[in-house]
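Severity: low
Component: inverse-folding endpoint
Summary: output formatting inconsistent between runs
Steps to reproduce: submit the following C-alpha cells with default settings.
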C-alpha cells in the first residue's frame, strides 16, 4: 500500500490505515516507539504495561538500590 507524507506543524505525519493499526494493536492515543534501521522507519507498539511505574519499580533490587543521600539541614520551606 502506498500513502502520502503530509506536513503537520513543523513535523511530517504519516497516516496509518485502520487495518494496519488493527494488525499491530494500536489505536488513537496509543504510544509507539519509532526507530530507523537500514533506512526504514519501524513503528513498535508499546503496550500499556511498559509505561507503568510498577514495571520500573519491579526492577529495583538489593544490588542496584542506592542509599539515602543527605542534602544538609532544611534552609527554607522544605518542611511545609
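Observed output (run 2 of 3):
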Amino acid at each position: 500500500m502506498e500513502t502520502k507524507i503530509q506536513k503537520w506543524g513543523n513535523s511530517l505525519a504519516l497516516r496509518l490505515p485502520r487495518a494496519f493499526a488493527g494488525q499491530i494493536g494500536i489505536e488513537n492515543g496509543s504510544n509507539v516507539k519509532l526507530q530507523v534501521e537500514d533506512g526504514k522507519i519501524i513503528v513498535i507498539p508499546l503496550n500499556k504495561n511498559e509505561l507503568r511505574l510498577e514495571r520500573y519499580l519491579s526492577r529495583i533490587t538489593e544490588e542496584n538500590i542506592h542509599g539515602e543521600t543527605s542534602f544538609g539541614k532544611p534552609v527554607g520551606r522544605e518542611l511545609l
